[in-house]
Design goal:
mainly alpha; 0% strand; rod-shaped
Amino acid sequence: MSTPDGRDVMLKRHEIVVRIIDVNSRILRIDNEINGLDIERRNAERDVHAVPSSGRGEALFTIEERISELGAMRQKILTEKAWLEQTLDDFDSAAAANETSEKRSVRRMS
């Protein structure tokens, strides 16, 4: 990959990999937030059961709603991740096929 075209290929591949890393980071942040909210939900459930008229039912509803929103966001990001991983696989396959083709051309010229 010492040619200018090889450098471009390397940079394009790098960009895809960086995007996958970003997606993984976003998934981890969402998972962390969901886990924190799960703890809050359990505390709110405990409070609702301990004192049913405490008004914590609204808090519980809000927490569950946010967990649901985060779950939908997570699913959307997982779809993006699958697409990026497929794009990377396709990119690597095309690059490997191109490299094999170039080696055959060089052998024929020799």
